[in-house]
Amino acid sequence: MDDHRALPGGKLEYAVLTALWESGVATALDVHRRVGVPLGLVQTTTARVLDRLHAKGLISRERNGKRFDYRALAARPEIDRARLSAALSGFLMRAPSPAMASLVDAIESIDPALVDELARAVERRRGSR
Predict the structure, then answer these.
(1) For the whole model, what pTM was predicted?
(2) Using an 8 Å Cβ cutoff, are 50 and 91 in contact?
């Protein structure tokens, strides 16, 4: 991912970006019906979110008659990795040891086998240094 590209700024921006990943190409009205209507938002709110994502370079827009067609520019795995990395960095910087223990506990509560997978990933990383 481009190191200078901004990340979605919150749940609403991420929801709109998700709608575009799932749709491929969508109009503002399409996105509003998918994201805005269920959240009880007015259409101008959805349009502002699309404008913000466009300004951040996360989506493109192409004029199609009187409307724009929107498309995600960044791949979902790239954005998800960057969001997770940013969240974990903030989480681990404050108190690394307790934070790591909490992370392992959370992973184990999801699926105990994931802790073993995490241990294998750590060993692979150590071996590649």
Answers:
(1) 0.76
(2) no
* pLDDT tens-digit map of 65-108: 999 999 999 999 999 998 888 888 887 887 888 888 888 899 99
| Helix 43-55 vs helix 11-23: crossing angle, to nearest 10 | 80
Half-sphere exposure in the Cβ direction for 54 (13 Å, CA): 14
- Give 48-87 as a DSSP string: HHHHHHHHTTSEEEEEETTEEEEEE-S-HHHHHHHHHHHH
47 Cβ partners below 8 Å, 6+ apart?
28, 32
Rounded CA-CA distance 95/36 in Å is 38
Q: Which residue has the tokens 């992370």?
A: 103
Give the closest residue to 27 by CA, choosing from 65, 75, 58: 65
pLDDT digits (tens, 9 = 90+) for 37-62: 999 999 999 999 999 999 999 999 99
